[in-house]
Design goal:
The protein contains 14 helices and no strands. The chain is mostly helical. The protein has one domain (2-306).
Length: 307
């Protein structure tokens, strides 16, 4: 679903009022706000259709988990979504997505630095492979690339940083709240942060109002439907099978985005992109496997000490 959403967003950014705007840094942020706002709309429609309004009551009453859900909204919205749209605007859909898929590396680093986690050799090998893949994807701009290609790569890295914090806070929130409640808070909270804080700061509210009246809004509406469904499925999978299994499966969106981008957007394919994307996905899978292996080794060590 996220692969479909990414490609549709690439189409929207090539339409008015985003394409050709003199405010080249503001326009992608406005598109990101529109995307999260419409994604929040679809999420509320799904909540109403499934009659899950009761799931939102703990959030409205500020019960445990609400603060973490809002932190997830800030990390995943203005930071991650905003930087993601800047990344695909400047580096292209396939390249921006490939670089942003380095998110498991940041997750592993936060675990090592703050949670006293450790990686086994497999995990360290995966971390190095992800870094190598990101370098391969971005070290040389493809022919005909945007003049700010490397700025797009930088925003892709910031996207991964934001998503890593988003997943961390979402997992903590789901100790107390349902995936539906966390996802709804994520989408609606993000849009409010865009409209109340970020867009007024960069002077983008007028462009957002214009965007709602253009055909591109309908395109973003379709992307938001796919993105909202993708988020709900991802949070549900994290809750049901844990992030260790959910994250590697989720990372296949990189390959789906590349395939759909090549087929529908006529984005140029290079061996640089193909090899780098495969290295990022494969390395991320090894990082997650390495984290699980290290935790299993720690459990065995504790049992041995108990004996």
């Amino acid at each position: 679903m996220w692969g479909v959403s990414n490609v549709i967003n690439g189409v929207a950014l090539a339409m008015a009022p985003f394409a050709g705007s003199s405010r080249w840094l503001v326009a992608p942020l406005v598109a990101a706000a529109l995307y999260d706002g419409l994604r929040g709309f679809w999420q509320l429609v799904m909540v109403a259709g499934m009659r899950r309004w009761r799931d939102l009551v703990p959030v409205l009453r500020w019960r445990p988990g609400t603060a973490d859900a809002l932190a997830s909204a800030l990390a995943g919205g203005p930071l991650a979504t905003g930087c993601f749209f800047l990344s695909i605007a400047f580096a292209g859909v396939t390249y921006g997505v490939a670089v942003s898929a380095t998110v498991p590396v940041f997750g592993a680093l936060w675990g090592i630095l703050f949670l006293k986690d450790r990686l086994c050799r497999l995990g360290w090998a995966g971390l190095l492979l992800v870094v190598a893949g990101a370098v391969v994807v971005s070290y040389r701009a493809p022919e005909g690339a945007h003049p700010h290609f490397y700025l797009g790569v930088f925003f892709g890295v910031l996207t991964a940083l934001g998503w890593s914090f988003e997943g961390l806070f979402a997992k903590r929130a789901m100790r107390h709240l349902t995936p539906t409640a966390v996802n709804t808070t994520r989408q609606v909270g993000s849009f409010l942060a865009f409209v109340c804080v970020l867009l007024p700061a960069v002077g983008g509210l007028d462009l957002l109002g214009t965007a709602f009246t253009r055909p591109s809004a309908l395109v973003v509406l379709g992307a938001a439907a796919a993105g909202s469904a993708g988020y709900l499925l991802y949070f549900t999978s994290v809750d049901r099978i844990g992030p260790g299994r959910a994250m590697p499966l989720n990372l296949t969106y990189v390959l789906w985005t590349a395939v759909l981008g090549l087929a529908l957007l006529n984005e140029p394919f290079t061996w640089q992109l193909g090899v780098g994307a495969l290295a990022v996905v494969g390395g991320a899978w090894l990082v997650v496997r390495g984290e699980r292996g290290a935790r299993a080794a720690d459990d065995v060590a504790r049992l041995s000490e108990m004996r």
